[in-house]
Amino acid sequence: MEFESFLVSLGTSAVIFVVLMLLFTWLSRRPGNVSVYYPNRILKGMDPWEGSSLTRNPFAWIREAFTSTEQDVVKLSGVDTAVYFVFLSTVLGIFALSALLLLPTLLPISATDNSLKNSRSATDTTSNGTFSQIDNLSMANITKKSSRLWAFLGAVYWVSLVTYFMLWKAYKHVAALRAEALMSSEEVLPEQYAILVRDIPSPPNGETQKEFVDSYFREIYPETFYRSLVVTENSKINKIWENLEGYKKKLARAEAVFAATSNRPTNKTGLLGLVGERVDSIDYYTKLINESVAKLEAEQRTVLAEKQQTAAVVFFTDRVTAALAAQSLHCQMVDKWTVTEAPEPRQLIWENLKIKFFSRIVRQYLIYFLVAITILFYMIPIAFVSAITTLGNLQKALPFIKPIAEIAFIRTILQSYLPQIALIVFLAMLPKFLMFLSKSEGIPSQSHAIRAASGKYFYFSVLNVFIGVTLAGSLFDNLKALEKKPNSIITVLATSLPKNATFFLTYVALKFFVGYGLELSRIIPLIIFHLKKKYLCKTEAEVKEAWYPGDLSYATRVPSDMLILTITFCYSVIAPLILVFGVIYFGLGWLILRNQALKVYVPSYESYGRMWPHIHTRILAALFLFQLVMFGYLGVKLFVWATLLVPLIFISLIFGYVCRQKFYKGFEHTALEVACRELKQRPDLEEVFKAYIPHSLSTHKGDDHQFKGAMSRYQDYAAISAA
């Protein structure tokens, strides 16, 4: 990439960000857009502009974000969101502290050497193309065997020590934040009085599954056992319930049309309402609702009597017993009576609870294999795209575009954005598939599935995007050299690692300027909402569904941040200027997402920071990769003291082990000293029990069966989220 193209890319992205920020300032003040820019506050019954300033200052939202406290975030968006901001601030601190030493030290050292000037062909350049202005400020300009390389070796130690310090401090803070939230006496949390039991053996003759579970736990916990809820096979009844809810929405829509026009709406009864007999919509959907209610009630009785599964949620009268039970071994055989903490009611993946112990293990390893295959085969198209979308290679593959590409303006735009946009498009295709694979492992809760999908996406991003793009471009350029000397592949790969630094500089800039600009302005959700409201929505419920924002999407957001983290780590010493981009990315991310968390996004679950140990592990994985990259690159520079990095690599492994041993158990289980805190109000155990009853098993008539009145606020909340 030419220096001019880089400046055009950076300048264009900055202009787009400023325009989007000004659009946000203007659009967010218009009353008709309130539900798009303040949905979190609306759902909590707050005034949209509560605590805000309606001045003409376009930067007022920045002051509000900076002055908000961590407790404000916890109150409005939950502990998980607060933990995510700890992650952003920790990484911001790592890169800021690293930049304070590396930029004033390494840039002059690089700029005053002349390795590239003396080299006939700058094979060690940090960019694929003419970019000498940046190359002269990078490690590529350092002569081999030079004593200046000591500064770069010391820089690796500095970055590593700063990371250890910041991660240790963050882990302690998140652990305290989690404990404080769980010890809160303000609210009764149903999951703190329950455990999830899987792999239940077959009951003795003459006993139902529920009777067997009750007798088993009543014998172990005679004074504190309350009752159990046996999981049932609900696929058929869920379908009936979904159809019933759909008919109710269509009836409400038909009644709204009738009220607005005084004309009774009609519809056809055939496929997609396009064929079949034309009928009165209100009468037709009323009839279908009555039929569905009858089917639902009949199926409820069948499910409760005949479709009990080998899993249950067991309830206790106090939190300490539930916490103790979740950490205890209840059976000598590990594949029977498997007990864990119960997730929130809205988190349970009911269809996974019946999957047996060894089946879950087999599924897990099979999914790991499928993910490995996916990474391998996905690397092929990404490597091809990364190689072919450089302008020179694209002209070779498609000669007919050469006249167009010779136009200066088009050439600059293609060089600036084409490879980065192609990469972003490829990455956007993956998350749903990884989430499907994670749920297929037999994971019992939504938050756990998101953590698993996030991990897969992270390793996919690092292996395919960071390593794949870097090495693919290098291998493409050096194919002839490899054909002549096949045994030189290690040298070629080690030398090629810095060559894509400028590609990633542009990639990071595109992500924080354009990506966060779109995030702040919410242009796309705003357009979609107004189109739906004008042409599709007829009822208040439909309008609410149209503007409901969803959550922060940790399954994709955290791995995307981790990719930027990995890129910045690995090039922080080779091309220190990338630290500036890393600081801007995580600084802007903290600021803009702070605003979105307080005003826009609504959490779909609460795991009380259980994502943090996984975030911590992946930061260390990125640091470990950085240390390996620097060990290899210093070796390419023929610096014999590169071996001094070997102890640092082992220190990283030891640090990760110590952190896991010290902190992880407190995230895996609820500590008894946390669970023993008394609540201000005595819990209504019947309401705790009802919170876990699925929608499809809740009754429509008061005395039909034992689950009357089971619709809880947790389920209502989940229903809104699903909508």
From TrEMBL:
Major site of localization recorded for this protein = membrane
Q: How does it sit in the membrane?
A: Multi-pass membrane protein
What molecular function does GO assign, one term?
A: calcium-activated cation channel activity
Q: Name one GO cellular component term.
A: plasma membrane
Describe the location of the CSC1/OSCA1-like cytosolic domain by residue ranges. 192-352
Q: Which domain of life is it from?
A: Eukaryota
Which keywords does UniProt give here?
A: Calcium, Ion channel, Ion transport, Membrane, Transmembrane, Transmembrane helix, Transport
Sequence ranges assigned to domain CSC1/OSCA1-like 7TM region in this UniProt record: 363-633
Name the protein family. Answer: Belongs to the CSC1 (TC 1.A.17) family.
Q: What is this protein called?
A: CSC1-like protein ERD4
Tell me which species this is from. Answer: Brassica carinata (Ethiopian mustard)
